[in-house]
Amino acid sequence: MEIKPCRQKWNGTMTDRERFNRQMHFKSFDRSFNMEFGYWDENYTEWKMFRENGIEHEWQANRFFSFDRIDVLGGHNWMEPCFESRMVEETSTHRIYINADGVMAESPKDSHSTIPHYIKPTVVTPDDWKKVKKERFDINNPIRIYNLDDLKRECPDDRDFPVGIHCGSMIGKIRDMLTFEGLCYAIYDYPEMLEDMVETCCELVEYSLDQLLPNANFDYACGWEDICYNGGPIVSVPFFRDVVCPRYRRISDKLHKYGIDLFYTDCDGDVRPLLPYFLDNGINCLFPYEVNSCAHPGELLDEYPELRIMGGVDKMALGGGRKEIEKYLISIAPYVERGGFIPFCDHRCPPNVKEDDYLYYLDLKQKMFGM
């Protein structure tokens, strides 16, 4: 389906690629890079502008709003093959199922957006891990070999938009297999198993990087963790420092060899206890940086001048109406202007944000940061 944009792309004198790289490296730029991080599923049915224009997915919304283009590529650096998703039980209110990571989970039958209740983890004991590792984490699986013709087509040297290389997850996806509680227990009950899981994830990422980095010019690197909540990290700082960080260092060393010095990780919650260790081991950008569970982005940017942020627009302010939106954008304006900060909603935009207020936010953002 052809998407008819509802607004024009912001004017500028640079390509999206030039703008992104200059802004994120504290160099002069024509205007802020313009992007957002998507929407809750409910937005696609509750917002009239989405319903009437057939907007059902994030990539369609990005075209609808004429956002700047940004892409990411990566090899198969996680479970291959995944588990077959299947229904286990269905009640009048809930569905119990096995997900692609092999975890038994329960979700509301009405499919409203919420975190599932995890019932049974994929891995509990070292014997469980030994079996899953052999069946699904084989580095020699042919699917892990990247098609270089596809790479050259998806990441041409003469492109005008930024492309990142995906560096997987060192502990967040492991949490998905073990569950929150299972990970907390495993740190103390099975530390050798857990470190082997982290090492396996790192080796798979390294294998993909060794294929991709010599054959394309990437603008940034990215990963995913989600190991924090509003009370801080769900893993101990010593575990993170001693087990996870050395793997980040290995990955960032490979990236630096190919000139990639911008590396973000997607980690929600209060990341402050982990931030010094992120920075010391090559991760120098936070995405999408949740405000309400942490702090105003200016606090971190003042404390860590080398830090970059992508996101950081408080979704609570977006839901608070136009005065709150204006007040918040004014508060981040100096940080956007100095560079290293691309502002957008600090996670998927929730449906409590009125669509007229969201359009006001986009218009105000253009007025303030379209320069």
Given as residue ranges, the uncertain stretches (5+ residues, pLDDT < 50) are none
Q: Number of helical segments? A: 15
Give the overall average pLDDT.
96
**Largest sheet, strands/sense/barrel:** 7 strands, parallel
The strand count comes to 13
**Helix fraction?**
40-55%
Looking across the biggest beta sheet, what order are the strands in? 1-6-7-10-11-12-13
Beta-strand percentage? Answer: 5-15%
Distance from N terminus to C terminus (CA atoms, Å) equals: 33 Å
Describe the global form.
Answer: globular
Task: Work out the radius of gyration.
Answer: 21 Å
Order of helices and strands: HHHHEEEEEHHEHHHEEEHEHEHEHHEH
> What class would the helix/strand composition place it in?
alpha/beta
